[in-house]
Amino acid sequence: MTSPSTAQEIISINPATGAEIARVAVTTLPELDAAVERANHAFHHSGWKSLLPHKRALVLHAIADGLLAEKESLAHLQMQDNGKPLGECRGMVESAIGTFRYYASVCETIEGDVTPSRGDYVSFTVLEPFGVVAAITPWNSPLMNDAAKVAPALAAGNAVLLKPSEDSPLLAPELARIALAAGLPKDLLQVVQGRGADVGAALVAHPGVRMISFTGGTTSGRAIARVAGDRLVPAALELGGKSPHVVFADADMEHAVAAVVAGIFGSAGQSCVAGSRLFIDASIYDEVLSAVVTRAKNLRVALPDADGVEMGPLASFHHRERVAAFVDRARAEGGRILCGGAAPTGGDYDHGAFYLPTVIDGLGPQAVACQEEAFGPVLVALPFKDEADLIAQANGTAFGLACGIWTESFKRAWRIGRALEAGSVWINTYKQSVTSTPFGGFKNSGIGREKGIDGLRLYAQVKSIYLGLHEQPLAVAK
Ligand code: NAD
Question: Is 450 left (phi over 0), alpha (psi -120 to 50) or beta?
Fold first, then answer.
């Protein structure tokens, strides 16, 4: 089933049941122009950018309170919008709440610098907002990704136009509604809806937009970067990944196998940091792979609010088609499908966009399935001979988002962690992510860092100010 949406209307389908849950009007180009104009007006005249930081922080805390008050209904809405297990959806609302609280604190405490003077003046820096920021988000974790952009952009004093994915359009308007009720000046956060190729592209190209913050696929990121380069506006890009998850022979096997399975099959693999390439020391390859396959086969694939669910459906029917095509291509490349490789059938499975946890081996590191992102529950396994072989294989893709390393040797973990090209390195853990720690990619996985204090600086430009203290008039020449 492909998306039934039209150019004027997005039809949101619950991927667990196939039922229509909402229709959302696509923003027209005149509406987009008007929204940018209102955002610019709010940026210049609402008083937000000059509000004292601790007062701006109060509004951000009030947004967090508003999200908390509606946590359960927001979690259910996300579950219907993109099919993630309810427990994960609750976690994502909690993450959004934490992000607003964190940036409220950063907003109050971030400082400029007093810089060493070389004359009769005091020199220092202040952070200033850009103006209207375009925040463009993907469908896999809508509210969490929206908050990761909106909270720091507002904390820095900007206005935000938020464009959620056409595949998960329902959470962003809720965030804007809650923000307005929490006291955010009108029009400072607005939502535009539509496909990336038309509404997204028009937003990025709009002359009233002064900064772009994008999370999504590498191909879209490249297209946006081209426009941003032409317009000379900054673009922060959080893109895709093909993250290596490495198991050495001295690893704690119980923990390593559990993390490998959680690292790829959590969120049904629809996570930018999914550990989608499993590298196993050749001396323990069969043993570890067999434990991973056994665990994958036993995962409970079910409706997202079922008891004990471990994997729900994929986020849409057309995404399931993409994942199935990815696996078919791996099969055609000579890959051995050790489990999964198909949609489950019978009962609830027949109505939703389900796909089985899939493990593939027998492919070389250059196979398409080992190079490209599936963004689904598909793990490819590869053996390595030694550290040099591992580093060459693991770094041998265009991506560099994250990696996981399982070993009891601290020195080896350090060596490999420094050698792998990745923005986040997890040693004896996987997929940990907190709002206080910078996140972003190396290579084709992105430009810039979200989260942490850097996450606020992303939305601010540095202004240097010199305060003259001269006793004598300035001379033309010294
Ligand atoms: P996508 O690139 O298709 O779309 C992402 C968003 O960008 C959507 O809102 C879409 O409408 C918009 N868009 C697409 N093309 C555009 C264009 N030319 N101009 C302006 N906007 C455009 O990605 P997706 O399928 O929604 O999400 C999956 C991708 O997102 C995966 O590659 C995944 O790895 C990546 N992702 C990355 C992170 C991260 O933090 N690095 C987090 C989540 C998802």
Answer: beta
Task: Give the per-residue pLDDT at 398.
Answer: 98
What is 9-239+445-464's CATH number?
3.40.605.10
The Cα angle at residue 233 between residues 7 and 224, in degrees rounded to 5: 40
Distance CA 336, CA 355 (A): 17
Buried/exposed 48-85: b ≥16 CB within 10 Å, e otherwise: bbebeeeebbbbbbbbbebbbeeeeebbbbbbbbbbbb
* pLDDT, tens digit, 9 for 90 and up, residues 3-51: 667 779 999 999 999 999 999 999 999 999 999 999 999 999 999 999 9
pTM of the model: 0.96
Distance in Å, CA 375 to ligand 1 centroid: 11
What ranges do the domains of the chain cover?
9-239+445-464, 244-427
CB 240 within 8 A of CB 272: yes
Identify the three-state secondary structure at position 97: helix
From the CB of 241, is ligand 1 less than 6 Å away?
A: yes
CATH of domain 244-427: 3.40.309.10
Residue minimizing CA distance to atom 30 of ligand 1: 216
Closest to 60 measured CA to CA, from 48, 75, 42:
48
